[in-house]
Amino acid sequence: MSDRNQDYFLPKEWHGKCVTLTNYRGGTALDVAGGSSNNGTPVHGWEVNGSRAQQWVISKVNAHDVWSPWTLQNVASNTFLFNRDGLSEANVDMWCWSRDYMSHGIADWFLITQERDQNDPGSNEPIIMLQNAASSMYVDLWGGLSNNGTRISGFYRDNLNPNQLWQLRLVR
């Protein structure tokens, strides 16, 4: 039995898996613009197309620690999702950056699982919120819009706000 007011972390069995993350409201995927490997490339919402720009390898920072945050490494660009400069301000855009800029937890994320609505006929794939370890901000699809290119930014937690809920789908 689970408590809807209690946060639960994604189980360690997901460590090293390649996934896509689809926003619960907008239905768009977390996508690196053009699959570019340039540092500072924005991450945005884009229609699900199965491209490598939408595939992420999720890895625990410390595989043996239950409280460990995770990193999200994009398959196309080989860069990591990060909260620009670890800022704890609302509406800071999410970017990707190479490993050499991985300091102070700005590319570390707590993957917090959420229960599915009992009326949701969806699969058993997890629904998660991504909380930045440095800033405590949550990955948010701007306005929950389904338009290609919609901003992905950090925002304060808004319990069960579908703009901040992401469905994890296993790629391989």
UniProtKB/TrEMBL annotation:
InterPro entries, alphabetized: Ricin_B-like_lectins, Ricin_B_lectin
Ricin B lectin domain segment(s): 5-86
Domain of life (superkingdom): Eukaryota
Name of the protein this chain belongs to: Carbohydrate-binding module family 13 protein
Organism of origin: Plenodomus tracheiphilus IPT5
Phylogenetic lineage: Eukaryota, Fungi, Dikarya, Ascomycota, Pezizomycotina
